[in-house]
Please model this.
Amino acid sequence: MQNRYVGLGEKGRPIFLFEPDGKTRFRQVLWGDFLTVDGRVDGGWLKVLWAPNDPVKRKELLIRESETTPTRPLEIVFVDVGQGDGAVVITPERDLSERIVVIDAGEGPNMGSFLDGRFGSYQTGFDFHAAIITHPDSDHYHGFRPIFGDHRIGFQTVYHSGLVERPVTGTFEKLGGLGPKDPTTKLQFLTDLAEDDAHIRAAFGDAARNGNAQFPRTMQAAIENPRIRRFSMLSAEHGTTVGATTYLPDFEPSTDRAYTIEVLGPVVERDAAGAKGLRRLGSYGETKNGHSVLLKLTIGQFRIIFGGDLNERAERFLLSHYAGIGDAGGFPTRDSQAYRDMVTDASRTFRADVLKVCHHGSEKVTDAFIEAVNPAAFIISSGDAEGHVHPRPDLLGRLGKLGRGVAPVLLSTELQRSTREVEDQATVTRLKREVERLAAGPTLERRDAIMQSIEELARTNVDVWGSIYVKTDGQRLITAFKIESGSPLEKWFYFEYAFDAVGQLALVG
Model:
């Protein structure tokens, strides 16, 4: 019998695997979880093999056949990478046409650990469809370095915003330098864009020139990986163009797929000499953040925006661009008719049901952009060990006020994470006692006991990581996270959404 997937319970009802008696619950499972089916059992049950490849954990369980499905939803995992961004898109195909795209990887090892746990230990290798570095900030790209450095892992393409930090001193000099200011428009452009594969290999292929610079060494690791095939800029002009719309290659409209991924930014312009460029958006940091790769995933009726590290200047530029009003006359005054018209016109491009909030919950975003997207759910990726106070409390209030519906859902990898309230006092007491016993003479047993206690104290305070899961088949959508209790019977909490008879998005249950 063909393997199946966990279905979606009616009105938010959780679904469980059962012991062979059909009465005792074993574990809560989530929509789209893969099931290894070993036949049918009387009474409408399917026999499921739990951990089929592990001789120790392998177990025969039951699930109601009515609570399974032969298809799976598209899945997005917003990985808890700490401070930074990292998301994984997994398309719903059952066969080799499945595509897995990693959008940013944070700064530390969490993304690599997630990929290893989810997709295997890479004993025989694993090829992902694409890696996307939205912009050259280390809390978005540096987690890719060990992933690129593992030659069992491949990517068909590594995409980037076209702005790449070269191993030189300065700020804008790293991005190739700014052109002269246009005397009429007062605009400056970065025109040394890394548009193609050859540009990346020439810029970062020399280890001696790269030195210890983080971005160059990350790209060097990718160049040296034989399983990474190519590098390419991704923008509203660089990708697969259909009509007036640019798509992530292999995610354009197709009769074979129910989903697309549009590329909305960065927006490439021409300078006074006609050269392609990305405009200066203020400071060095504002400029490279503001030209983040901006994506909109659509499947069925649902749309999801990946907001990168957009900021106020970038959002004003993008809103004006997509509303067709340009720079003339400046940005419209809030509550003016021009402002309302701009938001309405821009919403044709930006309207979405879920927004990966820009810049980790920074307050430096515009109400106009949030209004144009008007999402029912917000997802914020941020971490504890940083000095930016993300997500900002005032930003959370603005999201709740400007989101869709009476009670928009705000989810945060940092806020959904669970920690121990206090350190393990019993372990501290035991460790002190063992240290005192050293006076009587060291033994191997005493040494082992001390080492075990130290390892327990050294483990992270985090008991439940704050990764957030989004799953949708185009008609229904859930946003889910793990419950801190750790109980296998109370493992997941999720919000379910569906469109009503008149096409309005609403929470179910």
